């Protein structure tokens, strides 16, 4: 694990250097598409759907405790420090390495399908926090460079998994297990969505006096407020001039 982490950090540095010198994969692909027929390219982009699928094997299911420590080691290795702080960094590295040596790499008991599903969620959370947003922003920017707009609402990148749902004879995967895993994923997705909506509520302070608002938004907002009486009158009063923030509050209420 430690060798893999150091190799990954080194490769990440090399890839960043190459990207600075030659452009990233998306940029190089956009260069090759600059002479393509714009209409055909727009239609292709509408149907773009890359879908990595997560799998699992009980013998390969690293514990989240180990994964978190490996992530911390990678962060320490990637963080440049001045000489005066190097000793402190070395101490933190040694602490995490010692903890890994003293931690069971795999659980003593065989993981259940739900445990494997939680492990997959860990990786999805890491991708969401550290990669997916940047990839989608880069994709939109490179498409714009060749004259194509990424349509609103499109989902060019999604993720799937058969963990807890495989039907290849695994006696541990029953209809009840599949249902439990679906509930687990659903609840985690709702939690993530609530966190993102809360971030939006904090950001969307746009005042209608400065930015205006479309009739469509105002009509939708009025409908939501009528159908969601549980929204505090305090929000309605304080955010009366901030329709985007108030709309995000309505979205949040629908999720809870």
| DSSP strand tally | 2
Q: Based on CA inertia axes, which overall geometry fits?
A: globular
Taken as a percent bin, the fraction of beta residues is under 5%
Radius of gyration of CA atoms, rounded to a whole number? 23 Å
Sheet of most strands: 2 strands, parallel
Order of helices and strands: HHHEHHHEHHHHH
Measured distance between first and last alpha carbons: 39 Å
Description:
The mean pLDDT is 86. The protein has eleven helices and two strands. The protein has a two-stranded parallel ribbon with strand order 1-2. It has a domain of 77 residues. The protein is globular. By secondary structure, it is mostly helical.
Give the topology, please.
Layout: H1 2-22, H2 25-33, H3 38-46, E1 53-54, H4 64-78, H5 83-101, H6 113-145, E2 160-161, H7 175-203, H8 208-211, H9 215-227, H10 233-238, H11 243-255
Helix pairs in contact: 1-4, 4-5, 6-7, 7-11, 9-11
């Amino acid at each position: 694990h430690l060798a893999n982490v150091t190799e990954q950090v080194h490769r990440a540095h090399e890839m960043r250097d190459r990207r600075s010198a030659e452009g990233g994969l998306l940029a190089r692909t956009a260069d090759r598409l600059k002479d393509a027929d714009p209409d055909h390219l727009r239609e292709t982009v509408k149907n773009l759907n890359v879908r990595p699928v997560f799998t699992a094997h009980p013998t390969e299911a690293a514990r989240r405790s180990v994964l978190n420590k490996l992530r911390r080691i990678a962060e320490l290795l990637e963080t440049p420090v001045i000489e005066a702080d190097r000793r402190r960094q070395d101490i933190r590295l040694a602490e995490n390495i010692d903890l890994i040596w003293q931690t069971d790499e795999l659980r003593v008991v065989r993981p259940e399908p739900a445990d494997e599903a939680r492990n997959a969620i860990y990786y999805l959370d890491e991708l969401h926090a550290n990669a997916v947003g940047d990839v989608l922003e880069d994709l939109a920017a490179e498409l714009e460079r060749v004259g194509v707009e990424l349509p609103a609402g499109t989902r060019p990148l999604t993720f799937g998994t058969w963990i807890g749902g495989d039907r290849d004879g695994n006696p541990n995967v029953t209809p009840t297990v599949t249902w439990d895993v679906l509930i687990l994923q659903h609840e985690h997705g709702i939690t993530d969505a609530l966190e993102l909506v809360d971030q939006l509520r904090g950001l969307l302070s746009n005042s209608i006096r400065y930015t205006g608002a479309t009739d469509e938004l105002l009509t939708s907002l009025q409908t939501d407020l009528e159908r969601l009486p549980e929204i505090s009158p305090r929000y309605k009063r304080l955010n009366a001039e901030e329709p985007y923030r108030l709309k995000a509050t309505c979205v949040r209420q629908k999720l809870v």
